[in-house]
Amino acid sequence: MASIINRRQALSQLSLTLVGAAFSTNVFSSQKIFGASSIIEEFVNAETNFGKIKGYRENGVNIFKGIPYAGKTSEDRRFRRPAPLEPWTGVKETLTLGAPAIQNPRRNEPAPSEDCLFLNVWTPANDHKKRPVMFYNHGGGFVIGSGGSGGQDGANLARHFDVVVVETNHRLGLLGFLYLDELGGADYAGSGNNGMLDIVEGLKWVNQNIANFGGDPNNVMIWGESGGGAKTSCLYAMPSAAPYFNKASIESGPGVRMTPKEVAAETTLMLLKELNIDPKDWKKILDVPASKLLEMQGKLPFVPPFVEKNKNQGFMRRNYGGFGPVVDGKALPNNPFDPTAPVISKNKPLLVGWNEDEWAFFAWERKETEFATYDFEALHKKFEPTYGTNTQKIIDTYRKARPSASAADIYIAISSITMMGLGSVEIAEKKVKQGGANVYLYNFGYKSEVKIPNTDYPMGTPHAMDISFKFFNESADKPSFFGGNKPERVTASHNFAELWTNFAKTGKPFAKDAPEWKPYNLKDRPTMRIDTKLEVLNDRFKDELKVWRELDKL
Fold this sequence. Notes:
Blueprint: H1 7-12, H2 21-26, E1 40-48, E2 51-58, E3 61-68, E4 91-93, E5 118-123, E6 131-137, H3 155-161, E7 164-168, H4 173-177, H5 181-184, H6 194-209, E8 215-225, H7 227-235, E9 247-251, E10 259-260, H8 261-274, H9 290-297, H10 312-315, E11 326-327, E12 350-355, H11 359-365, H12 376-387, H13 391-401, H14 407-434, E13 439-444, E14 448-451, E15 458-460, H15 466-470, H16 489-506, E16 526-530, E17 535-538, H17 542-550
Helix pairs in contact: 13-17
């Protein structure tokens, strides 16, 4: 129907919410329990407030997978808060991943299911030692992904840095973010943020149970990349999440603004129209098969992790929809970082930043190769529809700041900073102006030699490459998909993981033999560049950011 944007159009609008999608689904999914190099030392039990569970100890880490943390979200609980989780008797085996949220099948994971509220725990020991807890929100926008993707396996962080890692599955897409507050009444209050409220349930579970896994419920860091960064931005602003975490990290997914409830309500009406359901009979959607809803979801554009600055009128135009967190005035009272940083998290330290060559991922994902042959005339033609009469000023600014850069380099640089960088800087600046806890700004810059297919252009530091690095899952024994095969990448990975785990422990990121990473401020604007060498750069991208400020993009 004309009221729904078709799949082809949706794909052409693919942006931040598909962040990490192909990467996490096709590269990093893993259901393996016992790998060839694994050493299963023993099975281990743990107590939860719902009953005993059984995991396993592998290479010095206790691992529990597929732990239920809330009840069913199917049938009469579709679009509602989960049913209470029923306690069990005996010992429940938690040896394999739980079902991910409804999406296309994920390689080596269980079949997706509406009942998907499971989490995974990696811990050095169930010994009540009170280790910091790193609660990770997976990427894949708001439509795909899981807490079981292999690249974000938490074992190495637990093993080498003495932390506890937790990752959840939660509702996604239409089933996680369909706004029914106005149609459904009290039973469906918060429906536009069910996916986020599921994560809050996971945080509650951690608060009540993680001491039995050697974790400290009073020292919890939330963090996430891409769509997971946007989820972390939302949690940072949600009253229901506030009691359950102490610090946060937003990585390559700066959730500054989210979907207005007016747009979410219109999207719901568009969906009902496509399904030939009259709004007064909206409950008929409860009987529509999940596979059909997934098909309908695919006909709508993906929601970016934030609504662009000064684009509200364009965003509010008719026929624009999608599924992601909703600024409903209740579960998510306000935009996470607009007009200011959230008061509710004023005293919680924050890390925020992005990868230097984010756009290389999207060039790879979309099979985009033409940019690698651009001269500066072609670059101007590429950007002119977006930036109009300001195009030459932007290009000239970047050429002056980077005199040895090619047209392709500048294309990647501009595309990367506008996608992830400007929002990250905006968050850092607003956090500083709040006058509360410290905020730290970073850039990840290790350069992969892997070429974008059908070009001679290297990936550099693409979007999503940071996942395996910060989880210390880079290995000198085998190449990584994006990271390449240079042995020094393991040093960069260790640097990243050491900074993040020390931040989890203390609220301040630091590493051995690294320069002091001072909090971001509006005078020096210190930025940590993460590579095989750690270096702090003051007022990085000064000239480039100046031109974006002049154009009111920041």
